[in-house]
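WARN no homologs supplied; continuing
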Amino acid sequence: MNSIDRGVPVLTFGIVGPPTCSIIYGYDENGDVLIGWSQFTDEQNPDDPTDAYFAENYFLKRNGLDKSEALIFIGNKKSPLNIVESVRTSIKNIPKYANLSATDRVVFGKAAFESWADSLSDDTCFKEENDLISPLDTYGSCVVQIATNMHYIQRYLSMATELCPDMIPLIQELENTYQRVKDALKKVSDFQGGYFFDADKNALLQKDFRETLADLIRELGSCYMDVAGVVEKYFAKGNNRRIYFTYSSRLRRLNKNEVFERVMGFPLSSRKDVLASQKHCLRECLCGRTNIACQNGNRRFAVFQSCGEQGRVAPLCNLPDEALPHTP
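OK structure emitted
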């Protein structure tokens, strides 16, 4: 309540619908009733008319914290992040997050898919139709998480291609690997008759059906972990490379478009958001905030490219302009 009193909303997971992120921006009755927004505000609760969910603007939820998985409080403003480095780091960290150790409440990576598959082996949850409510809710949450990831992954990788062209070879491998994840997810969906068992949810009452479904989920998990393997293999080969360069008065006489294309290997974008990130990347290089290889006494534009081996840098300044690298 203190945060809301200061005019700062609180983020939460849950309260209304599944534990997806939603916003608490008000309260009533000394905090007993929470006011906020969630993508599930259009769901009415017929069992408790005091829980009023409004589709367009907000929800009212009594004892809402009982349904919250976590709260996020917003503190003081921090310095803005570099979107290019954020995207680059997010891709490099895929193996790290896929291999996080399990906690009492959360499992990650392959273990998450194994737990998902194992949940189908508990016969006590699948004796009759009335038993399906709870396992279907849990199962549906798993489906929503991975289906949402796959729905947006290509958009994210396309953005990464624009912002991090030096990682294009890796991104192309990721696109192919994520396509196999999508194919594996489609096999799950097709077998169970839609994401939420639209054809017949009672099929879950059949043990052989659940065993086959569990195998498909494990196959899906293996494909998902292949993504982490692609990233690990890429950087294990020494592909964490950058373009190194120096510049002289000759470079400073070039206009900004020529400078950018000569240094980065591709033209400035016409999109304002991408253009800002590209200029920031160039500015970091020119200001020495990334690795710079200096060549004493060279009065011309010098470009270097890392060969991927520690301590070894190959000069490219004597090559014709068309031979300058497009990507590291």
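Residues 2-73 form one domain.
OK
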